Amino acid sequence: MKNPKTAPPAWQKEIYLNGFSGIKPTVNIDFHLLEETAKKHMTPEAFAYIFGGAGFESTMSANRQEFEKYKIIPRMLRNVSERDLSLELFGQTFPAPVLLSPVGVLEMVNKEADVAVGKAASECGLPYIFSNQSSRPMESVAAVMGDSPRWFQLYWSKSNDLVASFVQRAEKCGCSAIVVTLDTSMLGWRTRDLEIAYLPFLEGKGIAQYTSDPVFQKLMDEVDEDPPAKRVITAQTINGLIQMVRSYPGKGFFSKLISGRPIKAVQKFTSIYSNPALTWEDLKFLRQHTKLPVLLKGILHSEDARKAVDHGMDGIIVSNHGGRQVDGSISTLEALPSVVEAVGGRVPVLMDSGVRGGADIFKALALGAKAVCIGRPYVYGLAIAGQEGVKAVLQNFLTDFELTMGLAGCKNLSDIHRETLTQG
Ligand code: FNR
Fold first, then answer.
1. Which helix (H) or strand (E) holds 268?
2. Does the global pTM surpass 0.85?
3. Among 339, 347, 363, which residue's Cα sits nearest to residue 418?
4. Is residue 321 flagged as an active site residue?
5. Is-contact 129 100, C-beta < 8 A?
6. Residues 191 and 49: beta-carbon distance below 8 Å
7. How many Å apart are CA 237 and CA 240, to the nearest integer?
């Protein structure tokens, strides 16, 4: 992953040389095969949760279709023997314009979950955005990453004390930016999850940032205004309860069960995890509680992009949550140019949702993104081969991008601009 590069990418060479000795890649190179193989490594519940989108999944399709509308026009004889993929962002240098999107509940596909992803991201030097819905506390992930870059993604809870606590912890464990995800003030209508009536959070999965938080622990003792919903008790309920107790931190199944804390944690989480009442004015609170750059994730409208800058935000991530929230929503690549124009270079604009290879990264950059974030693809790598699987997926993306860039006649990121594309 060193820059600049003077030889064809080493990773590509390694794959072919291994093949010469009969060793095939453990993690598929082709995205569709990657998805298929990952499915075989997952429970039906995990696959529905990770693969699925909202409604008819038409936003997921739109995310892909928009990439197909643009074509790269390669240029020749430009001496691309040295290729520099590096990116300057918020005073830091990253090896490539690629970050790992925050993805929650990774324990559904791998025991080591976020820790495995953190290790792989740091092996590649790529920034990992810790999810607010992670399966491991941010401190545990940061501990395996050395000084490799990491950001923290925040879901703005109904408790501002909890918001402040999350941000403080993120600062303490070395996160260098805060990403506030705005598009999930409520869970979208996720057809596949609803069809099997499964939500991992009810089993206490994906709430490690909360159960490890001192403010949340205190909040758990407060009585909720809304009484818990009535449940039909079946054998499945008992199974869910067992999962819930297992997911709760600490040793001793029965002492955890008797304490009632695992159930309280899930109940408190479901009542406070998001705050649909949030408005632009609330962003001040965050500004007062951190000096770190703050980015807004989920921006799709140029007017919202302008507002973000006017409210002192430091960056924008154009995202539709991988098509998991609003079915029929604008694709992110379609939204990107107008957001970039509205921002007018005042803050960096990143994008995610539907990025599946090097050409996609190239096209997003050509349309004005500073960097892209990758979601599901690394989760599929994690499902197939844990830390090594994530690393392989990241290496595939970086190598594919490096080759696309060089073969298109670009030596560095500033060579990638609107004129390198045509809309066919
Ligand atoms: C997500 N995403 C997400 N976003 C976020 O801000 N916090 C989160 O906890 C999660 N959790 C999550 C779980 C799963 C299973 C998926 C697939 C996605 C959205 C994520 O950050 C990103 O926006 C999308 O994954 C990008 O789209 P692709 O690349 O997956 O198509």
1. helix 261-272
2. yes
3. 363
4. yes
5. yes
6. no
7. 5
Helix, strand, coil shares, percent, the chain, to 5: 50, 10, 40
For ligand 1, whether the C-beta of 131 sits within 6 Å is yes
Phi first, then psi, for residue 375 (nearest 5°) are: -110, -100
> Contact, 174 vs 123, CB < 8 A?
no
Virtual CA dihedral for 250, 252, 253, 256, nearest 10 degrees? -60
pLDDT in tens, the chain (424 residues): 445 677 779 999 999 999 999 999 999 999 999 999 999 999 999 999 999 999 999 999 999 999 999 999 999 999 999 999 999 999 999 999 999 999 999 999 999 999 999 999 999 999 999 999 999 999 999 999 999 999 999 999 999 999 999 999 999 999 999 999 999 999 999 999 999 999 999 999 999 999 999 999 999 999 877 766 777 899 999 999 999 999 999 999 999 999 999 999 999 999 999 999 999 999 999 999 999 999 999 999 999 999 999 999 999 999 999 999 999 999 999 999 999 999 999 999 999 999 999 999 999 999 999 999 999 999 999 999 999 999 999 999 999 999 999 999 999 999 999 999 999 7
- CA-nearest residue for atom 9, ligand 1, is 104
Pick the catalytic residue: 301, 311, 321, 417? 321
User: Residue 252: left if φ>0, alpha if ψ -120 to 50, beta else—which one?
Assistant: left
| 379 C-alpha to ligand 1 centroid (Å) | 10
The CA–CA distances, whole Å, from 411 to 77, 98, 139, 276 equal 12, 17, 38, 45
Beta carbons within 10 angstroms of residue 88's beta carbon: 11
Ligand 1 atom closest to 134 (CA): 9
Tell me how far apart the alpha carbons of residues 28 and 35 are, in angstroms, rounded to a whole number: 9
Q: How far is the CA of 41 from the centre of ligand 1 (A)?
A: 19
For residue 391, the SS3 value is helix
Q: What's the rounded Cα separation, in Å, for the pair 353 and 365?
A: 14
Helix axes 31-40, 44-51, angle to 10 degrees: 150
Q: Is 321 in the pocket of ligand 1 (CB under 6 A)?
A: yes
Angle between the N-to-C axes of helices 376-407 and 10-20, in degrees from 0 to 180, rounded to the nearest 10: 110
- C-alpha dist (Å) from residue 96 to 82, 165, 388, 399: 14, 31, 19, 10
